[in-house]
Every structure is written in C-alpha cells, then in structure tokens.
Amino acid sequence: MEGLIAYIDGIGWWSPGVPDWTQAAYLLRGEEIAAPDASAKPAANVLPATERRRAPESVRLACEVAEQACAMGARDPSALPCVFASAHGDCATTDALCATLAAAPLETSPTRFHNSVHNAPAGYWTIAAQCRAPSGAIAAGAGTFAAGLFEAAVEAHADATPVLFAAYDVAAAGALTDVVGSRAPFAAALLVSASRGPHTCASLHLRHESEATAPTAAPTRLAALAATNLIAAALPLFAALANGEETTIRLRNGAQTMLAIEVRS
Amino acid sequence: MPSRIAPLAISAYTATSALGRGRAAHAEALRLSRGGLRPNDFTDTPLACAIGRVDGIEREPLPVEFAAHDCRNNRLAWAGLAGDGFLDAARACVARHGADRVALLVATSTASIEATESAYRELEDGRFPARLRIPALHTPHSLGVFLEAVLGTRGPCLTLATACSSSAKIFAQAERLLRLGVADAAVLAGVDSLCGSVLFGFNALGLVAPEPCRPFDAARCGISIGEAAGFALLERDGAADAPRLLGYGESSDAYHMSTPHPEGAGARLALADALARAGLSADAVDYINLHGTATVKNDEVEAAVVADLFGASTRASSTKGHTGHTLGAAGILETAITLLAMESDLVPATLNGSAPDPLCGPQFAFANESRAIRVALSNSFGFGGNNCTLAFGRGTVH
Q1: Domain count for chain B
Q2: Which of residues 120-179 of A touch B (CB under 8 A)?
Q3: Does B398 fall in a domain?
Q4: Residue B275: which domain range?
Q5: Taking phi first (over 0 means left), then psi (-120 to 50 degrees means alpha), and beta for anything else, what does residue A152 get?
Q6: Active site positions of B, annotated
Q7: Does residue B2 lie within any of the structural domains?
Q8: Which residue segments constitute the domains of chain A, with CATH numbers given?
Q9: Is the pTM of the predicted complex or chain greater than 0.95?
Q10: How far is CA A155 from CA A82, A183, B114, B250, in A?
Q11: Which of A191, A243, B32, B214 is deepest in the core (most CB within 10 A)?
Q12: Is residue B191 part of a domain?
C-alpha cells in the first residue's frame, strides 16, 4: 500500500506570542503580526477553571490547540477519537517529581503524580470534552510528531471517523535541561479525516521512506522557532499549509526513516 | 458499533514477570496458584507494601553493543526478549517480511524514569552525573529506541503510553496497521519496571495495599505494583495452531483522572466494541481476565459490569494477585496469561482473598478451575479513564 491520505479539516497552534492558527499563518507567510505577548499562557478555555488551575502547562497547551482544531473543523469534540503526542511529556512535573523522590519520597504529591502520566492531556481533554471515544498518548523521540500524525491517519481510515491529533512539548526544567533539548513550549493540532469534507483545507499524502533522505529544513527566519523543541520541528509542514503550497515535506520518523508528506490543496 | 474484523495470528508471544521468565514458568505458577509477590525490597526509603519483582535484573547489564541503552527497563525488556525464543522469532519475522514492513509498537507507563530518578539522587552541582547524561535514557520513547536498535525494524515505530491500558491498546494499533496494509507484521512490546515514581506516587494517592493485593476481596485495600516484560508477534496469516486476536474495544471514561466511572461507562463501551469486532455475543465468552487491580473502586465497578453483562458460564478472574499490577505492561502480560489459560484449559484463580466482595457474581473464579476456554477477553482500564478490552480465540487447530 502506498501510504495514506489525511484530509485536514482543522488546525490548532500555540507558540509563545502566537496564540492561534490565524496569527501563526501570518507569521509563517512572513506577514506582520500583532506585537507578540510572549508571557501569555495558553487559554485552554475547554478546561473548567478548577482543572485549569491544577493542570500542568503541557495539559493547557495540548487542550488549547485541540480545541482550536475542533472549532475550525466545526466538530463536536465529544465524538472524536484523539491522539496526543509529546516527545518529553511535562518536564516541570517530571523535574519536581524526581526532585521529591530524591529528597523525601514519602512527600510525593498525589496531584503531581497523576499529572505525570503521559496521557494526562488525553485524560483532562476527554473529561473536559465529555469524550468517550478512544484516546491515545504517544511518544517517539524526534519522530513524535510524524508518528502521532500517522497514527491519527491510520485510526481515521480504519474506523472511517475524523480523529483529533494534538502534539505538544514544553521547555525542559531543572536538571533535565542537561538531557532534554526543549527550550520553549510549542503545540500544534490537526483535525484529520479519511475523506474530503466541507471543512477540508488541505490533504496530506503520508508515506514512510527508509532511504537516506533529510528532514525538510525550516525557512531561515523561522529556524529558531523550529529548533525550540522536537514538536516545533514540524514547522515546515505548517509553513506549507499556511502558504497553500503544494510540496513534499519530510519529517523525521524512526531512527532511519522519514515520513514524507505530500501537501495538496 | 464497529464491524467485525478478520482475526490476526499471534505467531509468537512470551512474558517475564514476578512469576518467572517465559511461558512455562507462568503456566506452572498459574497451575499451582503460586503468586510472585514479596515484601517491598526495592526502595531505599522503606514503604510497607508487596511488590512483583523480577529477580536478577540488577545483575544483568545489557550486552556491550547496547550499553548506551542500559537501564532497568531495557534490561527487563532484554530479559523478556530471551523468553521462548522470541528474539529469534522476531528477527526471523523481520527477515521474512522485510524491515520496512514490520511495525514496532511499544507500550510502557514510565519507561526508563528509574534512570532519571537515579540521576536526581546523584546530582552533581545540580547537574546529571556524567554516566547518566544520555538523552536517550531520559525520554518516554527509550524502550522503542532500544528495541528498534535490537530488532532492526524500519516500519512504523512508536511508544503508546496511556498508563495501565498501554500494552492492550498496541494490539488495536497493530490490527489497524495490518488491516490497512501499512505493515505485514507487528512486534508488540509492553515493559514497565519498578521505580520510585509509581511506588511512591500510587502510595500518595492512597492506592497501595500494605500486604499482597486481594482482588475482588471484600477487605481489599489497594494494589501491589509489579514489573513485567511481554512480547507478541502479530501477522495476518499464521500457523493453524497459533492463537488469534479476535477483537478489541477502546474507550475513554470522560470522568476522572484517577477514579473509574461509577457505572463503568467506558468499560462497557470497550467490552461492547471488542465483542462487536470479534462478531461474538457475551455468552460466547468462556473466560475474562479482569483488570482487577484490588483498588476499592476499580473492582467494585468491574464486578458490577461483569455481573450485568455476562452469564455464569463465563468465568472471570484477576491475576494481579499473582503478578502485581504491572501498569503499562499489564495488558500484554495478561494477554500472555489469557493465552496460556486457553492452551491449558485452566481458569486461573484470583489469589490472596478470604471473603469475596458480595458484588461479585457467579462468574468469579477464586480458585483454579479446569474447563475449555475457546474465547477469552482481557480487560485493561487505565489512569485518565483509558480503557481497552481485547478478545482472543484459539487457533483453528487446538
């Protein structure tokens, strides 16, 4: 089989100072955007206020972009299977948990522990959205975005249903900074369908390549943003989507494989 | 309701847990109703509880070519791969189908966090000690990176980490990849190892029992944490006697991060979808290996769901009293136990209890029972309200 086609019905985006896909599209096309407020936090309005206070940054990020993608595609999130993907999970939670375990393990915080599971965003999201559909949480190192997008497309085709895909990473924290390269939060979401619909804005033909090819480089002026974490490395795909460009983007997948993404309108 | 799927062959499988290494050790322990739990001898800070520990992992570093991946979780994976000739079977499968056509789906809840915990205990001026300054050891995908290096697969490869349902859900992922023709075979791995995060984390939630866990007992008071490595090889066509994956169902509770839905709404959806994909009704089910963690809430909800949906001819038990709750590895470990039960016509006991919860219906087996098992289910319900039920059948020749 020659890969899968993922139809994109909605897009979500959050990076520091660029709080949604509309602003991101301006940025990716090289147009002026409002002076970014880099200190702003993801709104994550889908979460009830009490949950939003308890939720770690990764959950707020993931829920924010997930909600944006659903809204753009006019989809009720309660019926959508969802795939969340993160290379490193919530680094601040991991840092705090490991520091407590080293110093006074019996003082481990129950809330911090439940926030530490990789499927915390999927859990908070399905609760907030009242979604009983299947939910997944994926990690695949530098291939996390590609693996998550492909899994969402597989689910969409296998069960003929739209699937919500949200990928996020937050900055490394504490001593983890030694071994985790993430330097800022970044998240993006795609609402993926197996067939073209009224909200389809692009189609992505996905296939794996195992020959030695290189990932598509981000435009020079955006290279710093693309380097902030492993999810932001998918920036060239979003640049193509923002520009309505018909092109092939390669994202790192496994140790020796790429995900080739043919972007079409 | 999802439509019926074509059964997939489980061409090879193995498990390593507190019950021992490989299928024969597990079959023997199940036959003798011999549990593998012991008093906690893992944490430096005392924590009164029972654990399901795999002996000897500390003394078994990885072979030198994989030294960069050395950590407890990958050691446990390596020990597990040696069971029942699985490594050879998986490599032969890669050679047979071609590396591009074999998916590698790995499941874990905490991966190599134990290595990260070690680094924090040994911080030098706030920095990781040099021997642990290895990025690949401090990522949730560490198991996938290690196994990809060991097996040489080049098909889709990812880590699925939905807490306690993780290694059940990779069976569902594999079915979809094979049905869509994206891959011709899938190597499935579920590995979770003991670490401070889960022992002290579940303890903080008040969910760890001071004594060996007592699933479905009236006086149950929490889980015993265990570690395990389980592997399975799935193909469209397999030997006639290979057991089959008949169906799967996945759902979310949409209720609470660490408490199941009180009426088991998500569990019921997962069960219904698994039966629908298998094309079976509830009365065709001979045995259910329950999630049965021995928390007050899980067992209460699961017992009610079983009593509601199944007749007395369906037997049900939890083997968490044998192995402990192996978290991200539980789905695949209990798949192995379910397949062994099917092969040996044995309904395994539910250990450690003295008085069953009155909520338990006539389906519950508290002692071993000898009976033919043609169709079996395995339940895995996780943190965050993440549920998965798998349905298995015998090979066409038994």
Answers
A1: 1
A2: 120, 122-124, 126-127, 129-141, 143-144, 147-148, 150-151, 154-155, 157-159, 174-176, 178-179
A3: no
A4: 8-393
A5: alpha
A6: 164, 291, 325
A7: no
A8: 9-199 (3.40.47.10)
A9: yes
A10: 9, 31, 32, 12
A11: A191
A12: yes
Residue B117 token pair: 């915990």
- The DSSP 8-state label assigned to residue A20 in this structure reads S
Contacts of A1 in chain B (CB under 8 A): 180-182
Distance CA B235, CA B77 (A): 21
Whole-complex ipTM: 0.97
| Separation of first and last alpha carbons in chain A | 22
Residue B1 belongs to some domain of the structure: no
CATH of residue B275's domain is 3.40.47.10
pLDDT tens over chain A, length 265 residues: 468 999 999 999 999 999 999 999 999 999 988 777 777 899 999 999 998 988 999 999 999 999 999 999 999 999 999 999 999 999 999 999 999 999 999 999 999 999 999 999 999 999 999 999 999 999 999 999 999 999 999 999 999 999 999 999 999 999 999 999 999 999 999 999 999 999 999 999 999 998 778 999 999 999 999 999 999 999 999 999 999 999 999 999 988 899 999 999 9
With CA atoms as reference, report the closest residue to B323 among B54, B113, B58, B112. Answer: B54
Number of H helices, E strands in chain A: 9, 8
